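Tokens in:
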């Protein structure tokens, strides 16, 4: 069974009420239940932190997982420390943004983590997490 960690960054604990016109009205906890039902053949573990250093620690600690799905939220645009953590581990990391960051304000157009990620998804809404898991399953099956 594939062990997959989902790590969400700052303010994603507020999904459901936070700017629903951008991020939708579902909480991540609700969506996580959907993912668990959809992927009974995967062991999914969900982490969330609003703190940059805690996200670095989580990424390092998830080195034993088969893959990580990471939405570092606003830290994606600013954090060399999180980019370094993604580059430092051998676990493949799939970057996800719920919104299409390239259709938004200019400061969101740079993703410092993208180069260290195996692949990235943006603009698919919460379904980006599901697409990332589909990709991980097919990628890991080939190995
Ligand atoms: C986000 C996009 C970021 O720019 C923003 O700061 C977030 C969420 C997304 O999932 O679309 O918090 O990562």
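Residues out:
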């Amino acid at each position: 069974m594939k062990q997959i960690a989902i790590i969400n960054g700052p303010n994603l604990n507020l999904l459901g009420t936070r700017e629903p016109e951008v991020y939708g009205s579902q909480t991540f906890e609700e969506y996580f239940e959907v993912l668990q039902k959809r992927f009974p053949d995967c062991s999914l573990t969900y982490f969330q932190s609003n703190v940059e250093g805690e996200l670095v620690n989580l990424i390092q600690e998830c080195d034993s997982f088969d893959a990580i799905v990471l939405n570092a939220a606003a830290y994606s645009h600013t954090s060399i420390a999180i980019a370094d953590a993604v580059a430092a581990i051998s676990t493949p990391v799939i970057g996800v943004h719920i919104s299409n960051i390239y259709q938004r304000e200019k400061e969101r157009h740079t993703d410092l983590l993208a180069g260290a990620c195996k692949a990235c998804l943006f603009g698919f809404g919460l379904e980006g997490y599901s697409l990332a898991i589909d990709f991980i399953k097919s990628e890991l099956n080939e190995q």
